[in-house]
Amino acid sequence: MTGVRRIADREGTLAWLFLMPSVVYIIALVGLPFILAVGFALSDVTTGDPSFDFVGVRNFDAIFDDPVFWRSLGNTFMFTGISMVFIVIFGKVLANILVADFKGKWFVRFLILLPWTTPVTLGAISWLWLLDSIFSPIDWLLRQVGLLGEQGSLLGNGSNMYWLGEPGLAMGSVIAVHVWRLTPLAAVIMMAGLVAIPRDLEEAARVDGAGYWRRMFEVTIPLTLPVIAVSALFGAIFTFTDMAVVDVLTNGGPNNATQVLTSWAFFRGIDGGDVGQGAAVALFLFPLLLAAAIAILRAVRKLEVR
Amino acid sequence: MAVVEVRNLVKEYESGKVRAVDGVDLATKEGEYLVLLGPSGCGKTTLLRTIAGLEHPTAGDVVIDDQIVTALPPRARKVAMVFQSYALYPHKSVHANIVFPLRAAKMPPEERERKASWAAELLGIHHLMARKPRQLSGGERQRVALARALVREPQVFLLDEPLSNLDAKLRASARDELKRFQQEVGTTTIYVTHDQVEAMGLGDRIVVLSHGKVRQIGKPHEVYDDPADTFVATFIGSPPMNLVTRGDQLVGFRPEHLMPAAAVIKDAQPMKLNVERLEYLSGDRHVYGTLTGIGEPTRVIARLPATVTEPIAAGMDYDFAVSRERLRFFDAATGLRTTDGES
């Protein structure tokens, strides 16, 4: 009995005890693979020949010479940038719906959170069906409304849009799925920010004569700006590091039009067997993500200062 | 300036389970300083918020300047409110806080600046205009909140316990300033507080509320000297009015009117006090004891001013008295005031 209490009293030991699982976890699953990736990027390791030979920056030279790499890099930034904008706008709108008080709000909240609770691959597969080249229900709907499939229709006289077959549409589809999947998370983060605004401020603005939009843009949004920044950065990081959507939806196609850094690293390093080049591509993400992480931490700090 | 009236106002919460405001009728006078006073949970803040338009009444009407505004949103009512927390916009400078209502009213910039300048001058906050609210002291924040309320030249000021966030010393001077400020601008003001000292000091008239009902409306001295019921009698005054049960009546008198018999000159009602304890508070002596001779033995408090010098010691019996004109009578069952002298 007294022995138990003595351990519980030693806070230094306890701190280590509690920290240990996450420290082990981070070292084993983040630290070691990272060092391994740096090592691979500087080597000629392939799946066929796993022997380690130091080759300097040759892998980097190779990927810089590859136009697909540059395309992937551009796509990564474009997908991330565009989806971040939509995620923030839709997230803000949904957050307002989440905090509103109306009949049936529990059902609406459930629906809003559904995409986030669905596994990415499952969601992406459903989208794969929705965007199918022949049986797409979206196309069917467009045909029913008369926007598609007849002479002079707004979207052309073909019977299908080939969402994942046309480079432009494929990119749009990938962005749409990212937005669909990450908006709920952004909405929940922003909802927490909205709830934290003192009710007095909103009411003071109402008595001061401010209408809905003035309250929104002059009181609510400035006060939730740090939270909006956090949700935007979360959205960015999740889009940036995700390859499941691209992998399931388009497999990088058509003709590498939707290739991103993560998927390209995977195709190069694992599917293509050139582990060294794959690692070099993947490492490219690191400085960018580091910057994003620092930005998040700073935004959170600002939130605490207020 | 305007007259604010509420007619048979009812506000229920949780579909009728809680009645925060229970049929309140009252009307201010032009330019009056009306104080809503009551313990916490009496419905005074709800009443104020209903007048502001932040709450919709379950029944009844709010009338400002002969116009029924019950259905109107806050911004259409031309009221200004100062919140307990001041509710300054933390991301805006003092200047931006003050002009916010004017921008919302789409006032042209030059006029806006003139108004802001005038309000800042009146409240002595010109030197703070560039600061953010978090860089201000409590008293300065209060003045900024007042300035923000003032610039719109509203018909009515609604103040929700604006002094409760200030420390005791600042509160006294802020109270004085608030009163002078209101006299200067002459705007009808409704002021909510649970502090009777504030109420007595600031109010032209006081509305005493309890459980969502108005117990009494009157000038400070009326509410103090002639309480309408035992609630008002014991809520106002510190220490509260002494109440002694006599048959189906309660006899009430203020602690300062219970004096050693020798000090009561005219028409004295004699009684005996067994002294238990003495407190010496800012010049006065508070005498705690059991009173006999006019009703059932009751624990009472007497407050003797410094001018009464009779020696009094704990554990002794003394002859005390109350001047008969100072006695108030209440019905023991209902607590309501009954006709004086009907004893």
Q: Would you give an account of this structure?
A:
The complex is a heterodimer of chains A (306) and B (343). By secondary structure, chain A is mainly α. Chain A has helices spanning 2-9, 11-41, 58-64, 67-99, 105-117, 120-130, 137-145, 167-195, 199-207, 212-241, 244-249, 261-271, 275-283, 285-305. The longest helix of chain A has 33 residues, at 67-99. The model of chain A has no long low-confidence stretch (mean pLDDT 82). Chain B is of the alpha+beta class and 343 residues long. Chain B has 8 helices and 18 strands. In chain B, helix 2 crosses helix 3 (109-123), helix 2 (94-104) runs parallel beside helix 4 (138-150) and helix 3 crosses helix 4. The two termini of chain B are 47 Å apart. Classes of the chains: A mainly alpha (306), B alpha+beta (343). The A-B interface holds A 198, 200-201, 203-211, 214, 218-219, 222-223, 306 and B 52-54, 73-75, 79-81, 83-85, 87, 89-91, 100-101, 103-105, 148, 152.
Supply the CATH superfamily name of the largest domain in chain B: P-loop containing nucleotide triphosphate hydrolases
Label the overall shape of chain A: flat
Query: What's the gyration radius of chain B in Å?
Result: 24 Å
Poorly predicted ranges of chain A: none
Strand content of chain A: under 5%
Spatial sequence of strands, sheet with the most strands of chain B: 6-7-8-3-9-10
Mean pLDDT of chain A: 82
CATH topology of the largest domain in chain B: Rossmann fold
Helix-strand topology string of chain B = EEEHEEEHHHEHEHEEHHEEEEEEEE
- The helicity of chain B comes to 10-25%
The SS-based structural class of chain A is: mainly alpha
Order of helices and strands of chain A: HHHHHHHHHHHHHH
Assign the CATH class of chain A. Answer: Mainly Alpha
- Helix residue percentage of chain A: over 70%
Q: What share of the residues of chain B does DSSP label as strand, in percent?
A: 25-35%
Topology:
The complex is a heterodimer of chains A (306) and B (343).
Chain A: H1 2-9, H2 11-41, H3 58-64, H4 67-99, H5 105-117, H6 120-130, H7 137-145, H8 167-195, H9 199-207, H10 212-241, H11 244-249, H12 261-271, H13 275-283, H14 285-305
Chain B: E1 4-13, E2 18-27, E3 33-37, H1 44-52, E4 59-64, E5 67-68, E6 79-82, H2 94-104, H3 109-123, H4 138-150, E7 156-160, H5 168-185, E8 188-193, H6 196-202, E9 205-210, E10 213-218, H7 220-225, H8 230-235, E11 242-246, E12 249-253, E13 259-260, E14 268-281, E15 284-292, E16 298-304, E17 317-323, E18 328-331
Helix pairs in contact in B: 2-3, 2-4, 3-4
